[in-house]
Amino acid sequence: MSKNILFFLGSFFLIIGVLSFFNIIYSYYFNLYLNVDSYLPTLIISSVIFLILFFIKKKENKFSVFEKILTVICGYIIFPILISLPYYFSIYNVSLIDSYFEAVSGFTSTGFTVFENIRHLDESIIIWRSTSQWIGGLYFLFSIIILIDIFDTNLKKSLTNFISFNSAELIKQSIKVLFLYVFLTILIFFVLSLINFRLFDAFNFSLTIISSGGFKPLNEINLILNNNYKIIVFALTLLIPFFSIFLSYNIFYLKNRNLNFFTEDYYLLYYLIVVTVIFFVFFSENNFIELFLSITSSVSNIGIYLSNHNNKYYLIYLILVIIGGSFFSTSSGIRFFKIFTLIRFSFNEMLSHTNPKQVILNKVIFDNSQINYEVIYKYFLSILIFLISLICISSLLSFGGLNFVESIKIGILTIMNTVNSSLYGLEDFNFNNINIFSKFVFIIFMIIGRVEFITIILIFKKYLFKS
Questions:
Q1: Inter-residue contact 66 to 74 (CB < 8 Å)
Q2: Closest by alpha carbon to 124, among 15, 35, 218?
Q3: Distance between CA 272 and CA 250 in Å, rounded?
Q4: Integer distance in angstroms from the first to the last C-alpha of the chain?
Q5: Would you place residue 295 in the very low, low, confident or very high pLDDT band (cuts 50, 70, 90)?
Q6: How far is CA 196 from CA 224, 241, 354, in A?
Q7: Contact between 136 and 417 (Cβ < 8 Å)
Q8: Maximum Cα–Cα distance for the chain, whole Å?
Q9: How far apart are CA 419 and CA 434, in angstroms?
Q10: Cα–Cα distance between 349 and 466 in angstroms, integer?
Q11: Are 228 and 293 contacting, i.e. CB atoms less than 8 angstroms apart?
């Protein structure tokens, strides 16, 4: 087995084991003895598997594209099994399927939950839920680096000048991501603590926000966001996973940059400003501070919002969720850069019919770059795949008993790994009331939403159409 595969998987078995150990220590320290034993299976199994992977004989063979895809997909199936064990062995009588559902929801940073009242959970389980999202967000960023050649070869240039990632480059970029991820988590925790969040709530929200997750440490965040100042600061922290995780690193080393590392972040900033201005001008009859929270929560694919808020603009927020944020971030969505590139390409094609010089130059309007048709086709395929995925999940959920409107809305949120809330008119959607078939549909499409359907197509192409 490839050394890179073992290193990638082993790292996360180690992380899960370490964090489960911390949860055991936390439970003992705060006398939360009822669920302390529920973390032991995760600790033991993850530690044993890590040791096996560490001592197994490793080969230095090349990490092929299909090995990368299968490794990433297997991780989204296997790691939630370990994460689900504390739920299953807890005192809350959570079924096996519900435990796995909760774990997949956390690991994919979606935020769907089978727990109706979080107040009834002890603090160790609440931390474990947030921890699962933090691990999943890190895994997603590592997966982007591993699959960067599949997703976007152009954006790879903002990471390295090498043609492809060798083992050394993979490790280098992974360490950089880990450092930035931990640093931004601490930054969010520090900011939330400064605005008088309870340390426990600040810690859980920092783990959730950095991963673009939707788990909350309590049901009614109105109790925490009880003034406009807190809402504004909280809304701004939701933008951290909206921009590239490398933004802070690139700003710090700005003088050493000889490439345009900020192109996507510039576009994202302009996009955010335009959306905010539009809301301010046309929807000013509402509390604009709450509208700003709605915008930041949607563009970052987090979805957390104030409870009991009747929102009539849910369609607009769903569109913001679909567009998504930066490529190198934990947010989901089709990705703004892809959509913006396709729009520019469309303008360029229309201009070419009136300006023959544009055809000869083959330049993209608003830019001096050459048209890369391979990239354009890939971006267009992403939108087509999203539409196919939405039709599939909506049809399956309708077959499982959901009404048409609910299946469309919750289908979008599932594919985009965004939590259901009052922003989208789904705050009262109860995952305990759906049948097992629908839960399996959610599990499958939460994973598909994270790995992108294009990787599934490549797998089918490899093994079903070998010619």
A1: no
A2: 35
A3: 20
A4: 25
A5: very high
A6: 9, 22, 59
A7: no
A8: 76
A9: 16
A10: 35
A11: no
Of the two residues 72 and 55, the one the predictor is more confident about is 72
Structure tokens at 431: 């995952």
Q: Are 185 and 202 in contact (CB under 8 A)?
A: no
Is 271 in a helix, a strand, or coil? helix
Dist. CA 335–CA 333, nearest whole Å: 5
Domain spans of the chain? 3-227, 250-464
3-class secondary structure, 437:
helix
Q: What is the pLDDT of residue 366?
A: 46
Helical ranges in 2-64 per DSSP H: 3-29, 40-55
Q: How many CB atoms lie within 10 A of CB 83?
A: 28
Give the global pTM. Answer: 0.90
* 368: exposed, middle or buried (Cβ count in 10 Å: 0-12, 13-18, 19+): exposed
94: its two tokens: 């959570």
CB atoms within 10 A of CB 248: 15
* Residues 407, 397 contacting (CB under 8 angstroms): yes
* Exposed e or buried b per residue across 270-284, where buried means at least 16 C-beta atoms within 10 angstroms of its C-beta: ebbeebbeebeeeee
In angstroms, the CA 399 to CA 391 distance is 12
DSSP-assigned letter for residue 371 = P
DSSP string, 364-381: PTTS-PBP-HHHHHHHHH
Distance CA 268, CA 244 (A): 10
Could you give the angle at which helices 436-451 and 96-107 cross, rounded to 10 degrees? 20
From residue 119, give the alpha-carbon distance in Å to each of 123, 126, 217, 382, 384.
9, 9, 8, 40, 41
What whole-number distance in Å separates Cα of residue 223 and Cα of residue 121?
Answer: 18
Q: What share of the chain is helix, strand, coil (3-state, %, to 5)?
A: 65, 0, 30
3-state secondary structure of 401: coil
Percent of the chain with pLDDT over 70: 82
**Residue 156 phi/psi, 5° resolution?**
-60, -30
For tokens 């490839």, name the residue. Answer: 2
